[in-house]
Amino acid sequence: MLLLTNLPCRLLPVLVLVLVLTMVYENMRSKSKSYVRSSSTTRPIQPLSLHMLQLFIHCFLSFYFLFLTVSEAVCNPQDQETLLWFSGNVSSPVSPLKWNPSVDCCSWEGITCDDSLNSHITNISLPSRGLFGNLTSTILSLHSLTHLDLSRNRLLGPLPPGFFSSLDQLRVLNLSYNSFSGELPLEQSFGNNGSIMFFPIETIDLSNNLLQGKILSSSKFLQGVLNLTSFNVSNNSFIGPLPSFLCKSSPQLSDLDFSYNDFSGFISQGLGRCLRLSILRAGFNRLSGDIPSDIYILSKLEQLFLPSNHLSGKISDDITRLKKLTSLELYFNLLEGDIPRGIGNLSSLRSLQLLTNYLTGPVPLSLANCTNLVSLNLRVNQLGGSLTELDFSQFKSLSVIDIGNNSFTGDLPEKGCKKLSTLLVALNFYNETFPSNKDLISPNGFPKLKIFGIGGCGLKGEIPAWLINIKSLEVLDLSVNQLVGPIPGWLGTLPNLFYLELSDNQLSGQLSNDIFQLKALMSQKSHDETDRNSLELPVYVSPSSVTTYKQQYNHMSSLPPAIYISRNNLTGSIPVEVGKLKAIQILDLSFNSLSGVIPDELPNLTRLERLDLSNNNLTGRIPWSLRLLHFMSYFSVAYNNLEGPVPTGGQFDTFLKAYFEGNALLCGGILLNPCMSPTQPTATVTTQDEDELSRTIFLGLGFGYFFGLASFIVGSLEAQVNQNHQIYTELD
Predict the structure, then answer these.
(1) Per residue in 395-445, pLDDT tens?
(2) d(CA 568, CA 590)
(3) 383 by DSSP, 3-state: which?
(4) Phi-psi region of 198 (alpha: psi -120 to 50; beta: other; left: phi over 0)
(5) pTM of the model
(6) Which of 182, 185, 387, 666 has the most CB atoms around it within 10 Å of its CB?
(7) Rounded Cα gap, residues 379 and 402, in angstroms
(8) What angle do CA 444, 448, 451 make, to 5 degrees?
(9) What is the C-alpha to C-alpha distance for residues 528 and 522, in angstroms, rounded to an integer?
(10) β-strand partners of 484
(11) Parallel, antiparallel, or unpaired: how do β-strands 407-409 and 255-257 relate?
């Protein structure tokens, strides 16, 4: 009985079963003997074999313990205590971890155990749980841990010392998108103190944190990661040389991402050891010197991303050996020389981004062999030559062309390119004549073109009539050319156009009412619901031009709905239809010869942020109702012929004096000169002034009535007194 009390409860059924089977066996055996004695003529029943009984019990126990191991295993108590300590150091205001100590921790959220009798924890997976707090050193006691995913939380602070060397069974580590800080706890190995320790880890993702310091080759951990295939430390603040040495200790690497850090200096040789490398990203650092030659032997490389560094020298012809390359992004560097003539050998290329370098010469004709090309960006280089010879008809998948800020001549692509969505050719084709044939582009010529920019070219002629066939157009930039004639009214019929840039031309005539009928600018709903996906290249927008320099937009939704028609020769008044553009944010009509008054309909543009009417011949007063435009951060009517008071209140209290200068008859407000005109009372007619006038009139009438009544009473009293005096006199 004492033995039974010491047995685990889950083993009692086994013992009971063994006892029952033993009793059954003995019972059957006795019955068989009795039967044999009672009948000598009948063949005796064979007793149950002891061997068969033992075999049955053995099979039962095997299945029982197998079931017991799988379904009733309890996690290791020390591991459970470690998890409870971890949960005590983190919090989740949205959905706290519901780890109940009375429940087997192997069944807790995000926890997986192995199938051993000790049931050690092997997997912690808690991505995007809103966890906030620190990762303490207690987690280092989980020596069986193979997978740790705490990505996309709000964990912070340094990683505990010995983190990598203690968790020596890890295969997958993902701590990305947190706020971990400090240096990596990479224990350094000084001198030759013995053999290198092996670590089985395959994936390391520490991207998008606040980590810093150097990644050195003397790290004991990084010397032993033989199976490492992916290493991502992008979007941190690491410094020092690029750790090319990883390809020596980890020749299985296929994905390396060092981008968006502060790595500096030359890229040392060594990357060529990673013969399985398919992705190499080291953009947005401070790397300098030539592109290392051993990169060109990486025959499996698919993505080479080295933009925004200080790389110099030429792009070697050996780059054409990278037959599997799909993306080549070397923009914002100091590269010079020609584009390799054999660039067409990269037939798998989908994205070629070489903008903002010092490249010279023509675009190689072999580029037409890159028939899978989707995005081509060569802007801001010193390229030249005729584009007519390049066969654009081969680019069946081409969606984006940006060759702006070069010196190209010839014709625009007219064939193929049915998927083209962006065509930017600014600052090319200098002083040529804009082709005006309406049939130049058929209605199906560019069925998906959304952005067309050809500003800064000095092109002559009129606004081409073939633009009416591009119904999908959303952004149009024809600025800084020599275009003449009126602004055609059919521009107002383009259903999706929300950004129109016609500044710095020689356009004349009156503003057509039709220009202010653009459907995409008439309704904020139509602008918001239009499909404005991420652009496949940055669109550079200065304060008044899509295709010039500095301001960059990566999303169509971030482009402000706008009309720029400044610096032309337009005359006539501003049509009242301007009040229909309720979605517009920027309206620039400055530096023209517009006359008449400022339309009272402008306050209908409730989303307006910038309104520039300066340097025209406008007359009349500034409507006080413009104070209702609460988003307007810029308003200029300088150098017109306006008169009367400058409105006060609202955004007008933030505008500079310079925005109103050049109007001799303006007064008050920011100008600080009093309005002395005799017609001033009828000029202001504000609600505040009306209240003050009404109050003055009311008080005047009140005082008049009071004094009149008082005079009447006093007069009546005096008359009564006089009458009484006369009566008393007569009585005397």
Answers:
(1) 999 999 999 999 999 877 667 688 999 999 998 988 899 887 776 677 777
(2) 9
(3) strand
(4) beta
(5) 0.78
(6) 666
(7) 6
(8) 120
(9) 12
(10) 506
(11) unpaired
Domains of the chain by start residue, with CATH: 529-671 (3.80.10.10)
> Which token pair is 591?
């530096």
- Least confident among 13-27, 292-306, 464-478, 571-585: 13-27
Cβ atoms within 10 Å, residue 252: 16
Q: How far apart are CA 476 and CA 458, in angstroms?
A: 16
User: Which element (helix H / strand E) includes 55?
Assistant: helix 50-71
Is residue 576 within 8 Å of 602, Cβ to Cβ? no
Which 3-state string (H, E, C) describes 289-320?
ECCCHHHHHCCCCCEEECCCCEEEEECCHHHH
State both tokens at 26: 């003995």
Q: Are 307 and 330 in contact (CB under 8 A)?
A: yes
Question: Residue 676, exposed/middle/buried by CB under 10 A (0-12, 13-18, 19+)?
Answer: exposed
| 292-307 per-residue burial string, b: 16 or more CB within 10 A, e: under 16 | bebbbebeebbbbbbb
Instruction: Please list, residue by residue across 142-159, b when 16 or more beta carbons sit within 10 angstroms of its beta carbon and e when fewer do.
Output: bebbbbbbbbbbbbebbb
- Please state, in angstroms and rounded to a whole number, the distance separating the CA atoms of residues 176 and 174: 6
Q: Contact at 8 Å (CB) between 229 and 245?
A: no
Cα 483 → chain centroid: 37
CA dihedral 136, 138, 143, 147 (to 10 degrees): -40
For 608-625, write each residue's pLDDT tens digit. 999 999 999 999 999 999
Task: Kindly provide the b/e burial profile for residues 213-243, where b requires at least 16 CB atoms within 10 angstroms of the residue's own CB.
Answer: eebebebbbbbbbebbbbbbbbbbebbebbb
What's the Cα-to-Cα distance from 641 to each of 444, 614, 618, 663, rounded to whole Å?
48, 10, 6, 5
DSSP state of 209: S
C-alpha to C-alpha distance for 237 and 49, rounded to whole angstroms: 77
Q: Please give the C-alpha separations between residue 14 and each of 61, 115, 322, in angstroms, as whole numbers.
A: 7, 22, 67
- Write down the residue that tokens 């063994």 correspond to: 18
- Find the Cα–Cα–Cα–Cα dihedral 312, 318, 319, 324, rounded to 10°: -160
Contacts of 344 (CB under 8 A, 6+ apart): 364, 365, 366, 367, 368, 369, 370
pLDDT of residue 555: 55
The pLDDT score that the predictor gives to residue 194 is: 57
φ, ψ of residue 539 in degrees (nearest 5): -105, 125
